[in-house]
Amino acid sequence: MTPTRALLLALPTLLLAGGLAAQEDARGALVITNARVAGHERPVTIVVAGGKVRAVGPDARPPRGATRLDARGAAVVPGRIDAWAGVGGADALGRGVDGFDPHDRHAIEEALRNGVTTVFLSPRGGGAGVLGAGSVVKLRPGAPLKDVVVAEEAAVVAGVGELDAGPLARVSAWGDLRRAFDAARRYRDAVADYDEALAKWAAEVGADTAPVDSRGGVAPVGSPSRAPTAAEPDPPRPRRRGPPRPEPGPPPPTAPAQQPQGEAKKGERPRRPNPDRVAALLARVLEGELPLRVRAQRAEDIVAAVELAREQGVPSLIIEGGLEAHRVVDLLAAREAKVVLGDPLPPGDGRARPPALAIDLAGALEARGVPFALGTGDLAASRFVELAAALAAGQGLDRGVAEAAITARAAELLGLGERLGRVAPGYDADLVVLSRDPLATAPAAEVVVVDGHIVWRRAP
Amino acid sequence: MRHPNGVRTELSVASGKVRGMRTALVVALLALTPWPAAAQDVAIRAGHVLTAADAPPLVDAVVLVRGGKVVAVGHTIEVPLGVPLLERPGAWLVPGFVDPCTGLGLRERDEVALALDRDLTVEGALDPEHRDLARARAAGVTTVLVTPGDGSLFGGAGVVLKTTGVPLGVDPVAKLALGPSVLRGDRPPTARSGAVALLRRAITEAHQAREPGTFDPSDLLAAFARGDLAGLFTVATPVDLDQARGITLPLGLRVTYRLAAGFDPSALDAEQARDLVGGAPTIVGPFGLTTPERALRVPARLAAAGVPVLFTSQAPDGPVEGLRLTAALAVRYGLAPERALDALGRGAARALGADERVGTLAPGKDADLVLLDGPPLDLSSRVLETWVLGRRVHRVAAAGEERP
To answer: Do A15 and A152 have their domain in common?
Structure first.
């Protein structure tokens, strides 16, 4: 990360330094002229190079040889972000990106046609427990997956069952989640103890082991394979799938293996705890490295999610869904939880108890200062994320806030607020040249740019 | 759609009886409703006025309302002394939206003990102060058909209702259904063949038995079979649609079809649509953001085949705002905006036999008005005010303004 940032900082210097470098840069450069950009009174020129916006302003100097695009006074907005695009199925060790087909040109182009350039891929399914990790990808037809993945693991997604799950199913779902976090905490402690013991042992025998992690002995538990002991001869264990099952009777049978290893016989190498990738993933949530996204629509589930986060010490909680969030908006505000709203008007199936829909749900969150983004809940619906914003505006949310909820605010909620969601220097060059009002019902994109590439153009 | 023969005079005896029954109900419901019958005389000048879907919007036009009715619409209306003129320069004023198939205001929707509920009307379960009706008013929906559900072959009759809880006073609409929803293990029909046979026999017998003066007001099935009442026919599959048409078309009965959720849209490809539906108005929806593209293309396809396409939110099973969303999504997938607007107004009103009262803004029509802050098919347009029969029944307080 740091070398990349350093390189980016150095780029302007390189440009000034030599014509050769400037020419090199201009090869992938794009200049959009006559663009109306929010925050600028007069039409501006947007200079894009190396996949980033370099300059925005009336006097921005385009590099020679750059591709030119005349916006003819049209609005240029940041690429829209669907902060909740459901994909694939649920698996505790799955990732949203595994369910993404970068070759599904039709779906991708439908989304681009509507100005959607980034999606948060959330493992689909109404199951209970840990549903997997969500991923962030850009939409670029034909581009290899490695070029479009922004973050493979951007959040841990958990669920509490179907909308109409009965009380018994809910109790058991919350129990499973609690157990999973308990296991994660035990695992984290065991890894920390192991690292400590290993360092001690290394000092004793003078062996050359990797240094202890800078965070005071807490190993990078998120990736046991990258732990200092990656080359250890421990045989790989079968992966655990799904949330941990209840362990019969205290003490848990795994406990002895995860006891502090300091008690081990003198001179004997401490034993590494059994790898547990679900626990490792949740440990990253406990560390605040990844947010926990709990899929919860009903008020009672939202309350339970907030309680779980408090009790387990989860620093960052996002409610995914939140159809009844208006009923518990004070609690959400007090606990600093965030919300990703999905399809605002889900057609009922006539079976499940319909959730109590607020007339202005997003407005209720906004009024109490609860950070939120608007999503669709399904990758196939990502093309309609701007309709979700339009509907929110139609129910009373400020139009500017509605637009932000699918751009800048969505980016912030995904932890990418310094990279996505704005037309400003240093941000990714994900831009949409619009032909009409940003919240019109008709498809409004004329040209869509992702990472500096023109990826979609309206047929003339 | 009118009766193919256009003959309704000979049925005046029957209609009179139906009407008598209705009047009693209207009176009963009026006693319950929170909206006084007296309406306000008012004139509203709006930035854009859409009188009907196929008319261009009038810019800066005035709608004059007296006694709950539209009296005049135009640029040069003389507003009588003493009638307040409301200025709404930024607003779009359109006819109140009509949802032709809902369960709004019902405490429970289905009575399924009998396959043929000859005398059931929804009034028995109707709560005119139900909060779902308030939500409908807030969404700009002013007229709805409240029907029994799809659990019976003949579910009885639905009532055309203002969302203030007051019946319009037009004929009830018979409710029919074919599909898995009508089958039960504990009473016939238990299978599709039995369902079709049962319904065909009942309707054909009632149709043949029609004689002047023998009308039994409690037999709504007979009233439908004789052509006295229009019918709303829910069909689950193309086969059901085929059977429904086979039963009703030869007898010249007035039917609007509703394609149930999950109706295979591929059956409506290209020219087949007209063959299948036979030109009867057809209700689709509700659509949501996750509705597959194939289904979203159905309205445009039906329209291209000359079929009047209508929309429903299926409220309260789905959110009532889904009515406008469904229309907007249909427009995104090829339906002409005028057709979509017509479906929300006059088209739906016609299917309910209420187009002389609602669905357009013209002198003599009910003063059911919706004011939005943008074009009605733009979903970001917000419903600012809703008026029913000349009374304001919903209003959004403007910024810095106190709620009235």
So the answer is: no
Render pLDDT for B232-285 as a digit per residue (tens, 0 to 9).
999 999 999 999 999 999 999 999 999 998 888 887 766 677 777 778 999 998
Q: Which CATH class is domain B98-351?
A: alpha beta
**Residue A298 belongs to a domain:** yes
Which residue in B has a C-alpha nearest to residue A342's C-alpha? B289
Distance (Å) from the alpha carbon of A395 to chain B's nearest alpha carbon: 6
Tell me, what's the pLDDT at A115?
93
Per-residue pLDDT at A429: 96
Question: Interior CA angle at A194 toward A193 and A199, to 5°?
Answer: 100
Mean pLDDT, residues B47-75 taken together: 94
Least confident of A356-370, B264-278, B363-377: B264-278
Write the pLDDT tens digit of every residue in A32-75: 999 999 999 999 999 999 999 999 999 888 888 889 999 988 89
> How far is it, in rounded angstroms, from Cα A357 to Cα A345?
8
B316 preceded by cis ω (within 30°)? yes
Q: How many domains does chain A have?
A: 2
| End-to-end alpha carbon distance in chain B | 41
Domain B42-96+361-395 falls under CATH 2.30.40.10: yes
Determine the structural domain holding residue A382 and report its residue range: 78-176+283-421
A19 Cβ contact partners less than 8 Å away, ≥ 6 residues apart: none
Interface test with A, best of B380, B384, B396, B403 (most A CBs within 10 A): B380
Same domain, A31 and A95: no
Residue A66: alpha-carbon gap to chain centroid = 33
Q: In chain B, whose CA is at the least distance from the CA of A351? A: B317
Give the position of tokens 């440009």.
Answer: A15
Residues of B whose CB is below 8 A from A380: 290, 292
Residues of chain A with Cβ-Cβ distance to B292 below 8 Å are: 380
Residue A209: predicted pLDDT: 60
Establish, for the pair of chains A and B, how many residue pairs have beta carbons separated by less than 8 Å. 97
Question: Domain holding A110: CATH number?
Answer: 3.20.20.140
A353 and A405 in a common domain: yes
- The pLDDT of residue A261 is 46
Burial of A209 (0-12, 13-18, 19+ CB in 10 A): middle
**A153 phi and psi angles, rounded to 5 deg:** -120, 100
Token pair belonging to A220: 């990078």
Chain A residue numbers with beta carbons less than 8 Å from the beta carbon of B287 are 347
Q: Does B135 contact A387 at a Cβ distance shorter than 8 Å?
A: no
Tokens of B76: 């040069």
Residues of chain B with CATH 3.20.20.140: 98-351
Q: Report CB contact under 8 Å: A402, B380.
A: yes
Beta bridge partners of B46: B61, B88
Q: What angle do CA B134, B140, B142 make, to 5 degrees?
A: 75
- Same domain for A159 and A15: no
